[in-house]
Amino acid sequence: MNRFSNTPSIHVFIFLLSFLILFGCQSGSNGTKAAGTPSPYKTTGDLVRCQDCDELLNWIQLMAIIKMESECDENEKMGGGIVGDDDAVPGGGTASDDDYAADDDASAGDDASGESGGNANDDDNQDHSGTNVQEEGVDEADIIKTDGNYLYVLTGGQFIIYDAQNPPETNEISRLAVEGTPLEMFIYQDKVLIFSKIYNDNLQEYLFPGISPDKLSWEILKFTIVDISNKLLPQVQRELYAEGSYQSSRRIDASTRTLVYAMPKDLGLQTYIDPWDNMGQPIPQDELDQMYEQLKAENRQKILSTTIEDWVPLYADVLHMPDGTIQQNNGFLAECFNTFRTSDPRGWGFVSVITILLDDPTTKQADIAITAEGGIVYGSTQSIYLASNQEYDYSWDTMTGREPDVEHVNIHKFDISTDPRVAIYMGSGTVEGYPVNKYSMSEKDGFLRIAVSVGWWGMSGPTNHIFVLQQSGDKLAVVGELRDIKKGEQLYAARFDGNRGYLVTFHQTDPLFTLDLSDPFHPQLVGELEVPGYSTYLHPIDENHVIAIGLSGDGMGTTYGVSLSIFDLSDFANPQLLHRLDIGGWETSSPAQNDPKAFLYYAQKNLLAVPIYTLGDEWSGTISQSYMGVWKIAVESGFNEIGKVDHTNLTPEEGSDLLTGPPYVYRGVVIGDYIFTLSEAALVITSLDPFQDAEEIPVPYKYYADEYPGGDDDVTPGGGGAQSEPGSDQGT
Question: Which positions ≥6 away from 166 have C-beta within 8 Å?
Answer without folding.
Answer: none
